[in-house]
Structures are given as structure tokens and as C-alpha cells.
TrEMBL record:
Subcellular localization: Cell outer membrane
Keywords: Cell outer membrane, Membrane, Signal
Residue ranges annotated for the SusD-like N-terminal domain, each copy included: 96-234
Protein name: RagB/SusD family nutrient uptake outer membrane protein
Organism the protein comes from: Mucilaginibacter angelicae
Occurrences of domain RagB/SusD (ranges): 304-500
Length: 506
């Protein structure tokens, strides 16, 4: 078995304390400054790793920000897939009734920009280092620009035009500047340039790295940069470029679908050949709170969980019974509250004695019932994985020439893994295959940070979400173009009035 050194996205701080009766005042032996912080290769690696850490959250023991929980509030909870029964900020998002004071919107914005700030600082300081080789410098800068591209991709998906900060702003900071947001096209141009550079620099993997000591899975790679760039081209509807890049990722020959959908998300399966770029965790070192947020309420095995990010029954019922992915939900169980938790037979039905009709259903994707029942867990979160490559190439090929044999085969590879009903090319048109692709992306990639962007790219955000809201008796609240992007957080607008929320939900 190949052994991996998993890149853990956390900064470990070890402090030794000593005291006596006569001297309790701390003695400062050194200060970390901009003059002494970037002197060695180890300093550069520490700065690089700190930027990876921003994908998770602010501190070890409190990792539930950005890509390890809260980002899903914006990407999935605001669609036909996600549901939250709690009031307040998540409830607003679940019913598509948010405003600029929503705390989850503000927190995601803040945490993503923290990654941007850390990346810019690392790029600026590493660029000036004299103690590392040109090859080492190129490697570190490529990793940082890849991570910054992830952040700006997420920012522009959520808010559209955003303030564009780069390493140049580290050199000449103007803390009082009220900078207007840059058009999405300008941000895309930066990401495209950065990712093209990263593709040329980053290795396929780190098995033969002379910079890092072992195969550090979880770091940015050539395949990850290729696919992230392909996804930007998909968003721009540059179909040929997206098709070409996804083919290049496939031709690397190092990625493949994991044998089972359930096994892919098990806590023990930290890394496999389907992973292209993921946020990795270790329950004993820097665990996340995915299990807490996704786990089912009153469950007899996974106890004391919140079912904060759940799935709509509407979405669950859309799966075919033959689909293995439909088995990945806590649909019925005897709760510790003495009640049988299950789906209502019809909307608004009154539960008989001893039964609780659940308003939504918990997924096993990040709540493995066979995993460790701990407060902090070691689940991975896949930002980029191979199934998405296959579906993305199929999408690009369909837009270029309709449902070709290759395009249909790519989707059927994903379906076949879960024993879902396969598509028949002869029964498809470009329009019906487009609809099937969007549905398949939902079934395969729910709560992986893709749903809202997919619905918008396919031009179906208002149609599908409003139809879902109508079916469950809620107000059809989605209005385009108003709801294409989230409002800038109120606190940010107060600081910088050039972040204008006119025309967005206020």
C-alpha cells in the first residue's frame, strides 16, 4: 500500500510553560517581524501551509468555516437541495429570504478574504526571498496562486464583482481606500493567468518532490490547476477550452472513480484516486465539525448532532430506487427521544403517536454511521474530484455538438458507479441531455459546494428553486437578476460604501 503524508491544514502551536514563586512575568526572547519571518525554506513552507489552513477555519478545535461547513450555507442551502429547520440566518438562506445582515453570508465573505490576504502576503514575501532556489520559489508561488484562485472563484460565484486585492496591495497598502469592486471579467483574467502559470509549474504529484520530503497529498497539483481553470471556462461558457482542459486532466492517467459512492465519503477514506484537490483533516490533530452539522437529530448511534445542513425530501425523492446514492440518507430510525423518525406520507400530514415526521433528511456524506462518533471528525471535503471532471467534459461536449456518444458515456460512468439507470443516447436531444446533466450533477455533487453555481450556469436557478418552493407551500422568492448574487455584507458596506447593494436583496 502506498503511504501518504497527508497535508493537514492547521498550524500547530506548542507552548511550554514554567513558573516559580519569585518570577511570574513572561520573558520575551524573540519577535516575529517582516524582517525575520521569511529567511529560510522552512519559513516559506510554513507560510504556504498557513494559506492552506485558511480553507478550513480560524483555529484548531474550531474548524467549521469556509470549505469545512459554512460555505455550504451559500452554495447548497440556498437551492432545491439543502434545507435547515433552524430559524435565523440559516433559515433565511434555506427559504431564499436572505439580506445583507445575514451572519452566514458575512462569515463566508470574511473567511474567504482572509485566505486571499494570507496568500497575497505569502506571494509578496516569498517573491523577495534570496535563500531559496528559483525552482522552490516558483513552486511556492504556484501553490499560493492556485489557492487564491479558489478563493476568487468562490467570491465571484457568490458576489459577482468583488474587490480585487493582489500582492501589489501588500507592497503599497492603503488602509483607508474605499476600493470599488472589480468586474468578474477582471477577476477571471487574474485567475486564468495565475492558473496557466500554475499548470506549467506544479507537479502531477509529490512522489518525487525535492522540495517536500514525502508525497504530500492535499497540495495543489497540475491536475487541480487544470480542472479549476476548466471550471472557470465553463462559467464563462468557453466550451471548447473547458472540453480541452478536462480531456487533459483525464489524459494524465492518475485519476479514476472510486469503486463505491458510499466508500468515497467514509471518514477512513481520507484520500484516493478520485481526489484531485480536497480539504483534509485528522480527528486527533485538526478535526472538523462536519459530523456535528450534518449528523441526524436524536440518532441512537451518532448522538448529539444538529442536522443543521440537511437535504430536502423533495430532492431525496428524486433519486431512483436502484441508485446507491439514495441509500446515503438517514431516512428512518428509532430516536433516543423514543420516537420513530421518518418521512411524512404527504405534505402537512399529522404524525401519529410515537412518530416524528422529519422536515428534512440528514445525509451520510459527512456523517458516516460507521465512523468515529467523536465531536471532531476527520472527514475530507472534496473541492475538486474526478466525477466532476467527467460531468464537466460531458457538459462542454453537449454545448459544442449535442449528446455525442462520448458525452453520454461520461455521464453513464458516473451513473454506473452507483448502479443508477443509464442514459440512452438515442432518446436524448441537446436540451434534454442538458437537463439530465444538471440533475446528475445534483445527485452526485450535492453539498460539495457546486449546486447554486450549477443552477446559475445552466440558467435554471429561478426556475428550479421556485418550483421547489411552490411544491412545499412556500413563497416563490427567487427573482433574477436580483438574486444572481448575494448582497455584500452590511458591515463591509458600512466600511466601504462603494460596495453597492442596489438591485440585490437588501
Amino acid at each position: 500500500m502506498k503511504k501518504y503524508n497527508i497535508l493537514l491544514l492547521a498550524a500547530a502551536v506548542i507552548t511550554q510553560f514554567s513558573c516559580n514563586k519569585t518570577n511570574l512575568e513572561p520573558k520575551i526572547y524573540s519577535n516575529l517581524t517582516s524582517q525575520n519571518a521569511f529567511l529560510t525554506k522552512s519559513d516559506a513552507i510554513a507560510a504556504v501551509n498557513a494559506v492552506y489552513a485558511r480553507l478550513k477555519g480560524p483555529a484548531v478545535g474550531d474548524n467549521f468555516d469556509y470549505w469545512t461547513v459554512r460555505h455550504f450555507a451559500l452554495t447548497d442551502l440556498t437551492t432545491d437541495v439543502g434545507h435547515c429547520s433552524y430559524a435565523g440566518d440559516p433559515g433565511q438562506l434555506s427559504l431564499v429570504q436572505w439580506n445583507s445582515a445575514n451572519g452566514l453570508i458575512a462569515e463566508d465573505y470574511r473567511q474567504i478574504y482572509k485566505l486571499v490576504a494570507n496568500a497575497n502576503n505569502a506571494i509578496y514575501n516569498i517573491s523577495g526571498m534570496k535563500s531559496i532556489t528559483d525552482a522552490q520559489k516558483s513552486q511556492f508561488l504556484a501553490e499560493m496562486k492556485f489557492l487564491r484562485a479558489i478563493a476568487y472563484s468562490d467570491l465571484t460565484d457568490a458576489w459577482g464583482p468583488v474587490i480585487l486585492n493582489t500582492e501589489k496591495d501588500v507592497a503599497n497598502p492603503d488602509y483607508k481606500a474605499q476600493t470599488p469592486p472589480s468586474p468578474v471579467a477582471d477577476v477571471d483574467a487574474l485567475m486564468i493567468t495565475d492558473l496557466q502559470n500554475a499548470i506549467n509549474v506544479l507537479p502531477v504529484d509529490y512522489t518525487k518532490s525535492d522540495i517536500y520530503t514525502t508525497n504530500d497529498v492535499g497540495r495543489a497539483t497540475k491536475g487541480a490547476a487544470m480542472f479549476l481553470l476548466a471550471k472557470i471556462y465553463l462559467r464563462e461558457h468557453q466550451w471548447q477550452k473547458a472540453a480541452d482542459l478536462t480531456k487533459q486532466v483525464m489524459d494524465l492517467g492518475i485519476y479514476q472513480l472510486y469503486p463505491s459512492y458510499e466508500g468515497l465519503f467514509k471518514e477512513t477514506n481520507t484520500w484516493c484516486s478520485e481526489n484531485i484537490f480536497s480539504v483534509l483533516s485528522d480527528a486527533n490533530v485538526n478535526g472538523t465539525e462536519l459530523l456535528n452539522h450534518f449528523g441526524p437529530l436524536s440518532h441512537p448511534v451518532l448522538t448529539d448532532r444538529w442536522q443543521y445542513y440537511a437535504v430536502t425530501w423533495d430532492f431525496y425523492n428524486s433519486y431512483g430506487d436502484e441508485d446507491d446514492r439514495k441509500k446515503m440518507f438517514f431516512t428512518q430510525y428509532q430516536g433516543v427521544d423514543g420516537l420513530t423518525h421518518k418521512q411524512a406520507p404527504s405534505l402537512g400530514a399529522t404524525a401519529p403517536d410515537g412518530v416524528l415526521y422529519m422536515p428534512d433528511v440528514a445525509t451520510m456524506k459527512y456523517a458516516d454511521p460507521n465512523g468515529a462518533n467523536t465531536y471532531y471528525d476527520g472527514h475530507s471535503v472534496d473541492i475538486l474530484r474526478y466525477a466532476d471532471v467527467l460531468l464537466s467534459r460531458a457538459e462542454a461536449l453537449n454545448e459544442l455538438g449535442g449528446p455525442t456518444a462520448e458525452a453520454v458515456s461520461l455521464v453513464n460512468q458516473v451513473k454506473g458507479r452507483s448502479h443508477a439507470k443509464l442514459l440512452v443516447q438515442a432518446n436524448l436531444t441537446q436540451a434534454t441531455f442538458r437537463d439530465a446533466l444538471l440533475q446528475e450533477r445534483g445527485w452526485e455533487l450535492y453539498y460539495e459546494g457546486k449546486r447554486r453555481a450549477d443552477l446559475k450556469r445552466f440558467g435554471k436557478y429561478d426556475v428550479i428553486v421556485n418550483a421547489y418552493l411552490k411544491r412545499i407551500g412556500q413563497t416563490n422568492t427567487v427573482q433574477l437578476p436580483r438574486d444572481e448574487y448575494f448582497p455584500y455584507p452590511l458591515a463591509q458596506v458600512t466600511i466601504n460604501p462603494k460596495l453597492n447593494n442596489a438591485g440585490r436583496q437588501q
